Automatic annotation (TrEMBL):
GO molecular function (one): metal ion binding
Domain of life: Bacteria
Alphabetical list of Pfam families matching this protein: HMA
Domain HMA: 2-68
InterPro entries the record matches: HMA_dom (IPR006121), HMA_dom_sf (IPR036163)
CDD domains: HMA
Organism the protein comes from: Jeotgalicoccus halotolerans
Name used for this protein in its record: Heavy-metal-associated domain-containing protein
UniProt keyword list: Metal-binding
Amino acid sequence: MNKVTMQLETLSCPTCIKKIEGALTKTDGVESAKLLFNASKAKAEYDPEKVTSAELKNVIENLGYEVLKVKEA
């Protein structure tokens, strides 16, 4: 499993968290996803043979949120 942390634009509401977490966890290959509201960060653990960090970034951006930085861990 790989880990990725993505710095997002400032999140404005708790609904944003549920929306992004839900979309990430429904993505094939994602083992876990967690949003840190105060830090505006998304963290995910994923299987690199099924999905890439770039695809996870696209999932978030397709919801209408900007991903400012992607850091592989």
